[in-house]
Amino acid sequence: MTNKNPTKRSLVLSVLSLLLCVSMFVGTTFAWFTDEVTSTGNIIKSGSLDVELLWSDAVDGTYADASQGAIFNYQYWEPGYTEVKYIKIKNVGDLAFKFKLSIIPNVLPIAGQYNLADVIDVYMLPAEEADRADIDAATPVGTLAELMADIDGAAHGYLLPAEGVGSDRNNGIDAPKGEIAYCIALKMRESADNNYQNLSVGEGFSVQLLATQYTWEEDTFDDQYDADAKLDWTPVASANELKLALERNAENIVLTKDITTNEAFVVDYEANINGAGFTVSRAAGYTGGMFTVKANAALALENITVDGGAVWTGPINDVLQRGTVNTGVTATGAIVTTEGNGVVELNQGAVLQNNDGANAVFLDTRTGSKLIINGGEIINNTAAAGAIWGGGEIIMNAGKISYNSGSLGGAIRVVTNVGTVLTMNGGEMNHNYSTSQGGAIWAGSSSSNNVYVFNGGEMAYNYSEQVGGAMYAGYYETVKIGGTFKLHDNAAASGVGAIRFHNHASFVMTGGEIYDNGENSLFLLNNSASITGGKIIDSFGYSGGLNLTWGEAEVDGVIAYDLSTNHNTAYLAAEFNTLKFSVNESDEHFANFNFKPAAGYTYTAGDEAKLICMNPGYETYWDAATQTFRLQAV
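-> structure tokens emitted (634 positions)
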């Protein structure tokens, strides 16, 4: 057959081909000019800070590794006896370092008792062959006892690497490279009398070398990037070393191993302990306290776990999310105890856990005691008064007080009558359990002027077998909620899932949220309350006299007023949001119930619709004569 229109057919095929090509490149972009540059072989490696301590009997003798044995070891000392040793500090890495050489006793000499260390002078001389005349002509750096007690060390210096970055420059000074040597001499004073016979230097001592970065290598800007590297830390690897470091008032203590203790560590100055991830545990046969912070002293813990020895087994408690049967140590002492004005600070990574039978933290009842939580945790403890007992001041900025249990207060029992202030700015106080009142916090019974301020963080999933799923506030106490604080998902067997206020306690809410704590979330009894901000999803009850001031808060629940007839006025702020309420009064007294707005309020038609009466057959209206909102039958 002859094709009568080849041109038309070719055109159609061309259009179809073009459409197919276009469809293949939908969503793509052509790059008409292209180029590429690749830098290969980039390397980032860290340097090595590595130090060795060696010793010898002669300056040109064979040097031994000091970490493998004692440098001084002689048992027949007498007046005038002198022992000379030579030490070398070697930089076997490729970074410069500064160092501190210290004398560390196994046990500090007891003041007032004769000790051989008191009459042995220590000399530090250049690394040259020394004779007796050189020693006699020199000035000692101190007695052995003085150097044992000196946390600043016996000698300081810096050392460059034999090879490495910066080893070929001197910054204008003649810097030692590779190694540096000293002559150390110990001499027993000729004046030592018979009182020093048959004595020893305590239980021995160690020669310790610490090293850290030195301002030598340069970065893009200068050589000062490690100017803050300090040698004021004290490494400890045993309970005895930790005890000794605290006795020597070491400011910054660093654990190098797990430690088990059968006695309490005493802190009577401002001490900082960094656990470096290690744990201090109570020994199996020891039930007493673990740390005692003396009056006016302070203890800061960081990156450390202090374990009270309880081992939780048995059925899992849903609130605590752990067993409640302890097959480990039952304690008679707290993990940390403070005396008057003592301060405990729990920083990031500090954990106080597993204390059963006594509180994790015991704060002295005097108002100066203070607990500060900046990211630490107090968890899995059980005692009659929860994890924390006492008075003073508790400040929580971050961290956890969770999974603890007790009778009055699952987490915290606050002493009354001492003006305790608890401030929560962040963190969580969750999953605590009370077998009585106050799932997390309890401070009831006698009159008190304690204040609780909740600015941030949350209290959630706490439980009480009676009332106050999260908290039981006592007589004349003040609870303030604001900021971003959240109080939610707490519960109590007998009702009042969030906070149960006792007589004459005060409640101030300017922000925050309260929700999902059950139908009767809050219960206020003869309380002064001001709710002018924040959000309350739950319903709650208000019983008795005094007053409740209502403002621009959001409440989805119903406030149930149970007022006596001589306290029948509720109060409104000058500006207020919608409020659903019910009144438990006999019918003849309904007309007496009223809402009185604060000074500065101007009635606007329809404002009565904001006050929604949930009692069947009643509504709210504006009484212009008394300038109040009242109830009337409909």
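Residues 1-30 have pLDDT under 50 and may be disordered.
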